[in-house]
Amino acid sequence: LYPGTVGIDLILLALPAVLGQAIDPMAQLMETAYIGKLGALELASAGIGVAIFNILSKIFNIPLLSIATSFVAEDISKNASKHSTSGKLELPSVSSALVLAAAIGTIEALALFLGSGLFLKLMGVSPVSPMYKSARLFLSLRALGAPANVIMLAVQGIFRGFKDTKTPVLFIGLGNLSAVALLPLLIYGFKLGITGAAISTVASQYIIAILLMWSLSKRAVLLPPRVDQLEFGGYLKSGGMLLGRTLSILLTMTIGTSMAARQGPTAMAAHQICLQVWLAVSLLADALAVSAQALIASSYAILDYKRVQKVAMFSLQIGLASGLALAVGLYISFGSIAKLFTNDPQVLAVVSSCALFVCASQPVNALAFIFDGLHYGVSDFDYVAQATIVVGVISSLVLLYAPRVFGLAGVWAGLTTLMGLRMAAGILRLLWKSGPWSFLHEEPETKPLAS
Question: Residue range 201-213: average pLDDT?
Answer without folding.
Answer: 95
